[in-house]
Every structure is written in structure tokens, then in C-alpha cells.
Amino acid sequence: xxxxxxxxxxxxxxxxxxxxxxxxxxxxxxxxxxxxxxxxxxxxxxxxxxxxxxxxxxxxxxxxxxxxxxxxxxxxxxxxxxxxxxxxxxxxxxxxxxxxxxxxxxxxxxxxxxxxxxxxxxxxxxxxxxxxxxxxxxxxxxxxxxxxxxxxxxxx
Amino acid sequence: xxxxxxxxxxxxxxxxxxxxxxxxxxxxxxxxxxxxxxxxxxxxxxxxxxxxxxxxxxxxxxxxxxxxxxxxxxxxxxxxxxxxxxxxxxxxxxxxxxxxxxxxxxxxxxxxxxxxxxxxxxxxxxxxxxxxxxxxxxxxxxxxxxxxxxxxxxxx
Lengths: 156, 156
Description:
homodimer; 42% strand
């Protein structure tokens, strides 16, 4: 039994909100988002591998990775970290090379209660249409399966 | 006679759109946004001085400045550059220290026609309320007077 992932995309607004609980302390969830070796082990769907190009998860740092599926399938992502506050908050930009110029901004917050951690991400897109296109691209599948992989990593 | 500055904030959406023409080539307008010495000479209202803390206007670079008015009045701003494409586009985050954690993302585009340049900025805020608060804070006055100062700098 995994914890549910809630993804909300209210019509007419350019936001996506993601909420997920993890049976682990905030420090461990934070580390899995900021240590590039750990991050590469869980992000995205199971049948993809993640190649980190750069990943400096500190305020003002840059990140870039390529997600590779079967055959020649490869998707590139990059951005910058506006804010990285240990164990509590990460604010970063996000651009998919399949939609160049359409940059979103995400604020991730972690709250620990009794050793469990509630992760919440609030994403803003440059337009409602860009948000709708991101949702339609299958982001939900990758997010949910990624978090299942993160559960497994945190349980080790 | 200065060119008009159009600032649009449609109700119910978290965007601000700014459009302004300059009687100068795109290269000069771009330089005034990316060279910290030039930028400090025009940004903000006339009765403020701008102290640059850091300003690396390249993809992945950081920026931070303090705007000082009369007496002890001081406002801090900081962010990161997601994309800097010479003479055409700057995508950057923006945070005012009076509203910590409320980060906006702006895309500035420059289009040159017959030696004049049309500047357009599309800003997205984390909520409609945060956008409304930014507009209510008097951003319009600072933007318009700043662009008049930029006109004067470009005319030299």
C-alpha cells in the first residue's frame, strides 16, 4: 500500500498542486531531492533512467538532467534553484526541452509530523494553456511512479 | 514626450503584462538590462539609488540589489536568471524582501523593428492574491519612472 498522490489542476488557472506523504523524516525526503545521486535513483517512471548533467541544489544553483526510455527516447529538463532551505523548502524553475521557452516555477514545501513528511508542490505556468499542455503530456504518471520509487529508496 | 508604458493585470489571473517601446536598438536595451553598471543607473524611481550586490546576467546566474530612498528606506530584491539570450530574451525569478517566499517569474522579450525596440514582460505570480499585492505595492510608478530614466540613458 503506497500513500496517495494528489494532483490538482483547477480549470482556468495556470497552477498545478501536488500533495504526497512519505513515511520518512523531512531530512531524508529533502536529501532525496537535493543529492543528485539519490535524485537520479527515483525521479520519473520505472522504465526510464536519469542522467544528471549538473545538479547543484543550493540557492542560485543550476540543474539539468536527461531522462532516457527505451531506444532513442530522451527528454531533457533544466532549471535554476531560486531558494533551497534545508529540510523545508525548494523553489526552482523548470523547463522541458519539448516545450522550449515555457518555463514553470515550483515551490516545494516539506512538513514533518511524527516522523512522517507531507510534501506539497505548487507550480505556476506562464499560461493556462501551457499548464494544460504539461498536464496532458503525462506528467501525472511520471510523478506517481517516481514517488513510489522514492518510497522504496526511503525504506532502505 | 515619452513612449507609453502599458501595464495589464487581468482580474482573476496571476499575471502582469508590461509593454513599452524604446527609440533604440534591441542590443542597447538588452545591454541596459544585463550590464549591472548600466542597470543600476535607470531601474526604479528617480529618488532612489540602486546598490548592486551581485548581478550575473547569464543563464544560471544570480542577481541581487538594494533600492535605497530617503533616510533609512531600503528595499531588497533578488533572483536567478533561468535564460539569457542576447538581444532577445531574459527569463528570471524575482523576490522582494518585503514579501519573502512569494517568488514571481518574468519573461522579457525584445523585438527590434526599424531601429526601435518593443519590450514585453510577462510575469507570473504564485497566486492571484500575490499578484494583486505586488500591483498594489506601487510597482507601476517605479516601472514607468524607471523606463523614463532608461530613455534618457539610451539617448546619451
